[in-house]
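Title: Prediction job returns without error message
Component: structure pipeline
Severity: low
Priority: P3
Assignee: unassigned

Description:
Job completed but the reporter wants confirmation the result is attached to the right record. Sequence as submitted:
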Amino acid sequence: MNTPPRSVPQSKTCAKLLLGSVAFICGVSAFAQLPPGRILQTVNFVSFGSRLCVALTSRNVGDGINVEQGSCSDDTAIWHLIDLGNREVAVVNRATGKALDVSGASQDDGANVRGWSWNGTGAQRWRTEGSSSRTRLVNVNSGKCLDVSNSATHSGANIAQFRCHGGDNQRWQLRTVSSSPNRPWVGGEPLNPARPYPTMPNATGGGPIGRLVYAGMIVSRATSKCIDVEKALRNDGTNIRQWTCNGTPAQLWDFIEVARGETVIVSRASGKVMDVVGAQATNGSNIAQYTWNGGNNQRWRVEQAGRGFFRIVSVASNKCIDLDNAGGDDGVNVQQWDCHGRENQQWRIEVVGHGTGWRNYRPGGLGAESRYADSAPVFAIGTWRGYNPIYRSNVELTIHEAGDVEAIVDGSLRVNGYFRNGILFLGTERFEVARDGRGIRTNQVGQSSNVVRYSRR
């Protein structure tokens, strides 16, 4: 019997929770109200015309609170810019968790702007144009600019949308308020923000909401076999075991970051999540699939174990996912056990290529460990630094002769990767690597705009 966790009042938990790398804000009533994605900046929008800031008229968490210009020192004047992909952002108020929204998704000049629960529509999606010192904010749905009505300079003046004309009442300085450390791993892509994860038809009930950071097969270092849902069944309690890798949905898993350092592991075959049965804390407790309930026995920490392998540690018990007795046969059980660092507790996530599902699977199994990584190109060996324009982050890349790779993103976030057939696998993405003068450059496969040029550290 898989027992959901006892309900805890929100006031005692809100400070501990994150959603899609956006801090869960006390007073916001539901996870679904916040857009998934990473915080790019936390800022004041300072008007060039008045030197006042975009702010909500109150800290009330209800929908429809008006937006006006006011004091930059007010906490309702602080906004998170959240990356939605495609160079679009959500603008979320830090005090209330409400998104900047054009009323009624109107395309008219003068349509009012307000705070509203996140719904993923174009009325809540914006593009920033210009530099951080002189930016205009353009609504994706209407193509019109955030505008101080009538170029007013007094506090309390209304803010609406209006056709873009370049006046100072449409120009904003993005003044950083605080750093935003809770960013996801590089390579993660945002989910469809209008719907909770998962969206596949096999899913039953509500799935975890968060950010997809890895997707693919989970392969044992000890046996080169995969974690598998027994017979691809969709029932609660279906066992999870080891099986020869075949790339079917029963062996494909999505890692969803739901809190800083915590992921939920979701089966592509069923939409169910990996669960320590009964929230037990003992060695040998079974791991099966269950409907998402938010419990710590369904949350995992992915910790590096070297050469691109990971330990997967239960948040509830602090024990590791373990292959029973390191057995090599199909059907060997997957359980939890005290973490000891041996190979039956080490796993590689064989990633799914961007956009088109499973790629590069080799029928008949993946073979010995030597087949996971090819030797790196000689010109690429070393430590490199560059700036990724898509993720807007500095990246330090260390490439070893044996083909294993580590990346440090934005100074602190670490991602393992490896070379195979001349392609760099990093996070959930793949990159072509080439010489670039005295440095190297990476070009993301399928995303020609994401080119990063690296120089030696």
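Comment from assignee: result matches the submitted record. Residues 344 and 390 are 37 Å apart (CA to CA).
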